[in-house]
Amino acid sequence: MTVHFSPVTSPATQKMTDNPNRRQVDAEDYYRRFDRSLAKRYVQLVLAHRRRTAALRTGVSTEPLQPRMEICDAPDSPVITAVFELPGLRKDEIGVHITPMGRLTISGERRRPPLLNNESEGLPRYPVRELKYGRFERTVEVPPGLEVKDISANLADGMLSVSWPRHSPSATQVSQSGSASALASSSTQPHS
């Protein structure tokens, strides 16, 4: 016994497939949209490549760098700790900011050291340039309502450790007024 299957088509689908001109228009429209999306993606890749090349050439990135980090979240601990890799920076070059909505941001700028002057050859050469300089920023979600006083931070050997309570102690009394000015004055340096 032989069973033949035929595709089930609705009258509207049957009408479209019966008209070869309609199929041609649909195919052209599909390929035109596909071509535009490929061209758009190609332009994005070229521009990103140019930005990366310029950053490598100058050693300074135009987009904020993201320092590497680890978050330690031990279930039995009352605090959560994030460790950020920030080699060569001092406390006064690092900003620790927090929003009432629960976003902790570490930011700053790693500046290039003064150039070494080699008087015999003029400007210094860099046969290898792997160090990254420029603005950096990293944001971590924390419990909403957390304040700067609830956070402890310590910078040692290029590693910034930032700890905060698992649950916000001031979650019931979040004050929107005046928090920006308090943060601006007290959150520019991590607590030791």
UniProtKB/TrEMBL annotation:
InterPro entries: A-crystallin/Hsp20_dom (IPR002068), HSP20-like_chaperone (IPR008978), Small_HSP (IPR031107). It comes from the Eukaryota. Residues 60-181 form the SHSP domain. Residues 1-24, 164-192 are annotated as: Disordered. Keywords: Stress response. It holds the Pfam family HSP20. Residues 7-19 have a biased composition (Polar residues). The keyword Membrane does not apply. Residues 175-192 have a biased composition (Low complexity). CDD domains: ACD_sHsps-like. PANTHER family: HEAT-SHOCK PROTEIN 20 FAMILY MEMBER. Belongs to the small heat shock protein (HSP20) family. This is SHSP domain-containing protein. It comes from Bondarzewia mesenterica.
